Amino acid sequence: MKKSEVPQDKSNLESANFRELCYAVDENGAYITANSSGWDPKTIALNNAIKEINERIAIAKNNVLNKKTSPIEYYMELHKMDLPILASYVGMWQWRVKRHFKPSVFKKLSQKQLNKYARVFDISLAQLQDIEL
User: Do 60 and 108 lie in a common domain?
Assistant: First the structure.
């Protein structure tokens, strides 16, 4: 696409004063970089993804409050992680991390294990143990 055709539609990037780097062709036919504030199809996809993430966070929080899961799952969703990523950050097998989602198992975790999770989520131990703080 030509430099003059680089999309400048409204997007979430624009509100945060970010620009996306794109490649374009200048008047001489050479490839150059150009800034874009976004384009509608990408904005729609990004908004849909953010909406889905927010729904997953709300479901996880509700499950914690109803004692169906532990706060670990909530903070995992809040920090936009999945099980493999979280397991690698805390240095445990995925099955162990998933087991820690059970409220009964979570209550029995050692301070050392809880501190690993708190460090990864960049929160205090008190926040990890009570999401209503």
Answer: yes
Looking at the structure, tell me whether residues 47 and 72 fall in a common domain: yes
> CB of 6 within 8 A of CB of 22?
yes
For the full predicted model, state whether its pTM sits above 0.70: yes
In this prediction, residues 17-29 reach a mean pLDDT of 80
Crossing angle of the two packed helices 71-78 and 111-121, in degrees rounded to 10: 20
pLDDT digits (tens, 9 = 90+) for 1-13: 776 667 666 666 5
Q: What is the pLDDT of residues 91-116, one digit of tens each?
A: 999 999 999 999 999 999 999 999 99
The sign of the dihedral angle between the CA atoms of 42, 6, 15, 18 is positive
| Separation CA 35–CA 20 (nearest Å) | 6
* Residue 22 belongs to domain spanning: 3-38
